[in-house]
Amino acid sequence: MIIRKSPDEIEIMRQAGRITAAALRSVAENIRPGVTTLKLDAIAEDVIRSLGATPAFRGYHGFPASICASINNEVVHGIPSGRRLKEGDILSVDVGAVLDGYHGDCAATFAVGEVDHCARHLMSVTKRALDAGIAKAIVGAKLSDVSAAIQCVAEAEGFGVVREYVGHGIGRSMHEEPQIPNFGPPGQGPTLKEGMVLAIEPMINAGGHEVVSLSDGWTVVTADDSLSAHFEHTVAIHAAGPQVLTEWAG
Protein backbone atom coordinates (compact mmCIF):
# COMPACT_ATOMS: atom_id res chain seq x y z
CA MET A 1 0.00 0.00 0.00
CA ILE A 2 1.26 3.47 -0.90
CA ILE A 3 0.93 5.78 2.11
CA ARG A 4 -0.02 9.36 1.27
CA LYS A 5 1.15 12.04 3.69
CA SER A 6 -0.81 14.98 5.03
CA PRO A 7 0.54 18.55 4.60
CA ASP A 8 1.63 18.48 8.25
CA GLU A 9 3.51 15.23 7.75
CA ILE A 10 5.19 16.56 4.62
CA GLU A 11 6.28 19.64 6.57
CA ILE A 12 8.03 17.39 9.11
CA MET A 13 9.60 15.47 6.23
CA ARG A 14 10.75 18.78 4.76
CA GLN A 15 12.53 19.54 8.02
CA ALA A 16 14.05 16.05 8.06
CA GLY A 17 15.09 16.59 4.45
CA ARG A 18 16.80 19.87 5.28
CA ILE A 19 18.80 18.16 8.02
CA THR A 20 19.72 15.33 5.66
CA ALA A 21 20.82 17.84 3.03
CA ALA A 22 22.84 19.80 5.59
CA ALA A 23 24.72 16.63 6.51
CA LEU A 24 25.45 15.88 2.86
CA ARG A 25 26.61 19.45 2.31
CA SER A 26 29.00 19.23 5.27
CA VAL A 27 30.41 15.97 3.94
CA ALA A 28 30.90 17.53 0.50
CA GLU A 29 32.84 20.42 2.02
CA ASN A 30 35.31 17.96 3.54
CA ILE A 31 35.92 15.66 0.57
CA ARG A 32 39.55 15.87 -0.47
CA PRO A 33 42.48 13.55 -1.13
CA GLY A 34 43.71 11.97 2.09
CA VAL A 35 40.47 12.12 4.08
CA THR A 36 38.99 8.84 5.26
CA THR A 37 35.39 7.89 4.68
CA LEU A 38 35.16 7.16 8.42
CA LYS A 39 35.94 10.84 9.06
CA LEU A 40 33.20 11.86 6.63
CA ASP A 41 30.81 9.54 8.42
CA ALA A 42 31.57 11.25 11.75
CA ILE A 43 30.98 14.67 10.18
CA ALA A 44 27.57 13.62 8.87
CA GLU A 45 26.51 12.10 12.17
CA ASP A 46 27.59 15.20 14.12
CA VAL A 47 25.51 17.45 11.85
CA ILE A 48 22.44 15.24 12.03
CA ARG A 49 22.52 14.98 15.81
CA SER A 50 23.35 18.66 16.32
CA LEU A 51 20.18 19.56 14.40
CA GLY A 52 17.98 17.38 16.59
CA ALA A 53 17.62 14.34 14.36
CA THR A 54 19.09 10.84 14.40
CA PRO A 55 21.01 9.05 11.63
CA ALA A 56 18.61 6.88 9.67
CA PHE A 57 21.20 4.41 8.42
CA ARG A 58 23.12 3.56 11.59
CA GLY A 59 21.77 0.21 12.79
CA TYR A 60 19.31 -0.11 9.90
CA HIS A 61 19.25 -3.87 9.27
CA GLY A 62 22.60 -3.85 11.04
CA PHE A 63 24.36 -1.24 8.89
CA PRO A 64 27.29 0.05 10.99
CA ALA A 65 27.49 3.72 9.94
CA SER A 66 25.58 6.95 9.34
CA ILE A 67 26.43 7.29 5.65
CA CYS A 68 27.03 4.93 2.77
CA ALA A 69 30.36 5.84 1.17
CA SER A 70 30.90 4.15 -2.20
CA ILE A 71 34.15 4.75 -4.10
CA ASN A 72 34.71 4.43 -7.86
CA ASN A 73 33.29 1.03 -8.93
CA GLU A 74 31.21 0.75 -5.73
CA VAL A 75 27.57 1.35 -6.61
CA VAL A 76 25.85 1.62 -3.23
CA HIS A 77 26.10 0.65 0.46
CA GLY A 78 29.84 1.13 0.85
CA ILE A 79 30.83 0.99 4.53
CA PRO A 80 32.90 3.92 5.84
CA SER A 81 36.39 2.88 6.93
CA GLY A 82 39.95 4.07 7.38
CA ARG A 83 40.44 3.95 3.59
CA ARG A 84 41.77 7.31 2.38
CA LEU A 85 40.39 9.00 -0.70
CA LYS A 86 42.83 9.57 -3.57
CA GLU A 87 43.10 12.24 -6.23
CA GLY A 88 40.90 11.19 -9.16
CA ASP A 89 38.48 9.07 -7.14
CA ILE A 90 34.75 9.63 -7.25
CA LEU A 91 32.75 9.14 -4.06
CA SER A 92 29.01 8.47 -3.79
CA VAL A 93 27.60 9.52 -0.42
CA ASP A 94 24.12 8.45 0.67
CA VAL A 95 22.74 9.86 3.93
CA GLY A 96 19.47 9.73 5.85
CA ALA A 97 18.04 11.41 8.94
CA VAL A 98 14.99 10.79 11.11
CA LEU A 99 13.10 13.67 12.73
CA ASP A 100 9.99 13.14 14.83
CA GLY A 101 9.61 9.70 13.27
CA TYR A 102 9.89 10.82 9.62
CA HIS A 103 12.76 10.18 7.23
CA GLY A 104 14.81 12.20 4.80
CA ASP A 105 17.12 10.50 2.28
CA CYS A 106 19.49 11.93 -0.32
CA ALA A 107 22.69 11.09 -2.15
CA ALA A 108 25.23 12.61 -4.51
CA THR A 109 28.50 11.66 -6.18
CA PHE A 110 31.55 13.89 -5.78
CA ALA A 111 34.91 14.30 -7.46
CA VAL A 112 37.96 13.89 -5.25
CA GLY A 113 40.30 16.54 -6.60
CA GLU A 114 40.64 16.43 -10.38
CA VAL A 115 38.91 13.54 -12.13
CA ASP A 116 38.98 12.40 -15.74
CA HIS A 117 36.42 13.21 -18.44
CA CYS A 118 34.63 9.86 -18.10
CA ALA A 119 34.03 10.39 -14.39
CA ARG A 120 32.87 13.97 -14.87
CA HIS A 121 30.51 12.94 -17.66
CA LEU A 122 29.09 10.03 -15.67
CA MET A 123 28.35 12.27 -12.69
CA SER A 124 26.77 14.92 -14.89
CA VAL A 125 24.56 12.45 -16.71
CA THR A 126 23.44 10.74 -13.51
CA LYS A 127 22.44 14.09 -12.03
CA ARG A 128 20.55 14.92 -15.24
CA ALA A 129 18.81 11.55 -15.04
CA LEU A 130 17.67 12.35 -11.51
CA ASP A 131 16.39 15.75 -12.62
CA ALA A 132 14.51 14.12 -15.51
CA GLY A 133 12.89 11.64 -13.15
CA ILE A 134 11.88 14.35 -10.70
CA ALA A 135 10.31 16.37 -13.53
CA LYS A 136 7.95 13.43 -14.18
CA ALA A 137 6.93 13.14 -10.51
CA ILE A 138 3.67 15.01 -11.00
CA VAL A 139 0.05 14.43 -10.06
CA GLY A 140 -1.63 12.18 -12.63
CA ALA A 141 1.55 10.68 -14.06
CA LYS A 142 2.27 6.98 -13.88
CA LEU A 143 5.10 5.80 -11.66
CA SER A 144 6.98 4.29 -14.59
CA ASP A 145 7.08 7.72 -16.28
CA VAL A 146 9.73 8.54 -13.67
CA SER A 147 11.60 5.32 -14.42
CA ALA A 148 11.50 5.78 -18.19
CA ALA A 149 12.78 9.36 -18.00
CA ILE A 150 15.80 8.24 -15.97
CA GLN A 151 16.60 5.37 -18.32
CA CYS A 152 16.28 7.56 -21.40
CA VAL A 153 18.84 10.09 -20.19
CA ALA A 154 21.37 7.48 -19.03
CA GLU A 155 21.19 5.10 -21.97
CA ALA A 156 21.33 7.92 -24.51
CA GLU A 157 24.90 8.42 -23.27
CA GLY A 158 25.73 4.71 -23.45
CA PHE A 159 25.66 4.14 -19.70
CA GLY A 160 24.21 1.16 -17.82
CA VAL A 161 21.21 1.57 -15.53
CA VAL A 162 21.39 -0.63 -12.42
CA ARG A 163 18.41 -2.98 -12.23
CA GLU A 164 18.79 -4.67 -8.85
CA TYR A 165 18.54 -1.54 -6.69
CA VAL A 166 15.73 0.96 -6.98
CA GLY A 167 14.15 4.06 -5.48
CA HIS A 168 11.31 3.79 -3.00
CA GLY A 169 8.52 5.43 -1.11
CA ILE A 170 9.56 7.03 2.16
CA GLY A 171 7.92 8.38 5.30
CA ARG A 172 7.76 6.86 8.78
CA SER A 173 9.77 4.00 7.31
CA MET A 174 12.93 4.45 5.27
CA HIS A 175 11.62 2.07 2.62
CA GLU A 176 7.91 2.11 1.81
CA GLU A 177 5.90 1.20 -1.24
CA PRO A 178 6.21 1.79 -4.12
CA GLN A 179 9.50 0.54 -5.47
CA ILE A 180 10.78 2.87 -8.19
CA PRO A 181 12.95 1.18 -10.84
CA ASN A 182 15.27 3.39 -12.85
CA PHE A 183 14.27 1.67 -16.08
CA GLY A 184 11.17 0.53 -17.92
CA PRO A 185 8.52 1.77 -20.34
CA PRO A 186 6.39 4.81 -19.47
CA GLY A 187 2.69 4.74 -18.67
CA GLN A 188 2.67 1.85 -16.23
CA GLY A 189 2.23 1.31 -12.50
CA PRO A 190 0.35 3.36 -9.92
CA THR A 191 -0.93 6.83 -10.70
CA LEU A 192 0.98 9.49 -8.75
CA LYS A 193 -1.23 11.36 -6.31
CA GLU A 194 -0.78 14.37 -4.08
CA GLY A 195 0.75 13.38 -0.75
CA MET A 196 2.93 10.57 -2.06
CA VAL A 197 6.61 10.98 -1.14
CA LEU A 198 9.27 9.24 -3.21
CA ALA A 199 13.01 8.74 -2.85
CA ILE A 200 14.11 8.88 -6.48
CA GLU A 201 17.66 7.59 -6.92
CA PRO A 202 19.29 6.64 -10.21
CA MET A 203 22.39 4.44 -9.94
CA ILE A 204 24.22 4.61 -13.25
CA ASN A 205 27.31 2.69 -14.38
CA ALA A 206 29.87 3.81 -16.95
CA GLY A 207 29.80 0.26 -18.33
CA GLY A 208 27.19 -2.48 -18.13
CA HIS A 209 24.27 -2.52 -15.74
CA GLU A 210 25.29 -5.72 -13.94
CA VAL A 211 26.39 -5.56 -10.28
CA VAL A 212 27.68 -7.98 -7.64
CA SER A 213 27.65 -7.88 -3.84
CA LEU A 214 30.85 -8.18 -1.83
CA SER A 215 31.46 -10.54 1.07
CA ASP A 216 30.91 -7.80 3.67
CA GLY A 217 27.20 -8.26 3.01
CA TRP A 218 26.66 -4.60 2.07
CA THR A 219 28.93 -3.17 -0.60
CA VAL A 220 27.65 -3.50 -4.18
CA VAL A 221 30.11 -3.06 -7.07
CA THR A 222 29.90 -3.02 -10.84
CA ALA A 223 30.44 -6.46 -12.37
CA ASP A 224 32.80 -5.05 -15.01
CA ASP A 225 34.75 -2.80 -12.60
CA SER A 226 33.47 0.35 -14.33
CA LEU A 227 32.75 3.56 -12.42
CA SER A 228 29.31 4.12 -10.90
CA ALA A 229 27.46 7.25 -9.80
CA HIS A 230 24.42 7.74 -7.55
CA PHE A 231 22.18 10.76 -6.99
CA GLU A 232 19.01 10.90 -4.90
CA HIS A 233 16.37 13.29 -3.60
CA THR A 234 13.30 12.87 -1.44
CA VAL A 235 10.40 14.30 -3.48
CA ALA A 236 6.80 15.05 -2.47
CA ILE A 237 4.07 14.85 -5.10
CA HIS A 238 2.13 18.14 -5.04
CA ALA A 239 -0.54 19.74 -7.18
CA ALA A 240 1.84 22.61 -7.95
CA GLY A 241 4.58 20.25 -9.12
CA PRO A 242 7.26 18.06 -7.54
CA GLN A 243 8.65 19.39 -4.25
CA VAL A 244 12.24 18.39 -3.50
CA LEU A 245 12.50 18.01 0.27
CA THR A 246 16.27 17.43 0.34
CA GLU A 247 17.46 20.32 -1.83
CA TRP A 248 20.98 21.48 -1.13
CA ALA A 249 23.49 23.80 -2.78
CA GLY A 250 26.52 21.86 -3.90
Question: TL;DR of this structure?
Answer:
This protein has 250 residues and is α+β, with helices and mostly antiparallel strands.
**Major β-sheet strand ordering:** 8-7-9-14-15
Integer-rounded radius of gyration: 17 Å
Count of DSSP H/I helices: 4
Biggest beta sheet summary: 5 strands, antiparallel
Percent helix range: 25-40%
Number of domains: 1
- Would you report the number of β strands? 15
Topology as a string of helices (H) and strands (E)? HHEEEEEHHEEEEEEEEEE
- Determine and state the CATH class: Alpha Beta
Folded structure, characterized:
It is a single chain. The chain has a single domain (7-244), classed as Creatine Amidinohydrolase, CATH 3.90.230.10. The model has no long low-confidence stretch (mean pLDDT 97). By secondary structure, it is an alpha+beta fold. A hairpin with a 6-residue loop joins β11 and β12. α3 (117-135) packs antiparallel against α4 (143-156). The chain has helices at residues 7-29, 37-50, 117-135, 143-156, and strands at residues 54-55, 67-71, 74-76, 90-99, 102-111, 160-161, 167-169, 176-180, 197-200, 203-205, 211-213, 220-222, 228-230, 233-236, 243-244. The longest helix has 23 residues, at 7-29. Strands 8-7-9-14-15 form a 5-stranded antiparallel β-sheet. Strands 1, 2, 4 and 5 form a 4-stranded antiparallel β-sheet that branches. The relative contact order is 0.19.
